[in-house]
Sequence to fold (73 residues):
Amino acid sequence: MTDGQLYLVFGGKVSDPRTTDFVNTEFLHTVGIYPSYEEARIAWKGASQAMVDDAMTKYVVVCLDKLLYPESE
Fold:
């Protein structure tokens, strides 16, 4: 079931694992775009677990509707 929104999952090297300050945006890894948060969360979890030994790599889930339609907040 979808919630009508789109979610982007991506990641890359960060300067500090407590932030989302990506070091080199040319090398960001796009996992995909998903029609529900649950699907995006599953993809995020898989990508994050694949890089568990690299503390400086971080993956995030972003709701694209918030970027596409900021006035609807």
About this structure: The chain has one domain: 7-72. The helical segments are 37-50, 64-68. The CA atoms of residues 12 and 26 lie 9 Å apart. The chain has a mean pLDDT of 92.
